């Protein structure tokens, strides 16, 4: 490990939670990846297709990486292949995801905004002003924070089976507290990261004022003027109640049928709804 990477990682690593996603298939998007660099931050990303830009935020907790939109459980197909025929699809590994290639300093005092910096910075790097965004699992809180940070840049947002808070999550032994296993995983991979640093990060991100969607308040969702399509889920880390509360609060929200993944013959209907929603709000 070179000295620069070591110095970055010893500052800490962004929290990760592979347990939030039941499985990630080995299938990849098949596109040649590139790196976007901003100071000490180095983000690995891939592009495919052409058309109006669509930022795809993979699921997988803070181990979210490009493989998470290539046929993993939060989306029942390869999302890049699904949308690249109409959109310029852009996706990236999350900063310091243990299984990914993106690296950078850990900003313990502003974790959600640090990730938003990466996401918006990547779009700036690509010369993209307005874009649509679709996020899975932890992509939900990321999207709400992007809508807070850059409301005029997002033409439409699709929030698919988002994570959210439920009271049981206060107990780290609860299956939905998907961040609980991260300190052990990350310190095992990078022994120079202390357990104390790892614990401080997840405490700040998920356990300081825990409520709702973690990243923003209800007032932010209530004031959102962007069109948002929500595909709810109901598993420990993806509470149905929080997803539906967002749908009720956001003034321009739509919601899919529920459940939309089971039985499997409902999936094509949900996929068609996503396509119709994005087309309806795609700038001419």
Determine the fraction of residues in helical runs and give it as a percent range: 25-40%
The parts where pLDDT drops under 50 for at least 5 residues are 1-30
**H-E string:** HEEEHEHEHEHHHEHEH
User: Widest sheet: strand order?
Assistant: 1-2-4-3-5-6-7-8
User: Mean pLDDT, as a whole number?
Assistant: 86
Structural class: alpha/beta
Give the terminus-to-terminus CA distance. 47 Å
What profile does the largest beta sheet have? 8 strands, mixed
User: Count of helices?
Assistant: 9
**How many extended strands?**
8
Specify the overall morphology: globular
What does the radius of gyration come to?
A: 17 Å
Strand content: 15-25%
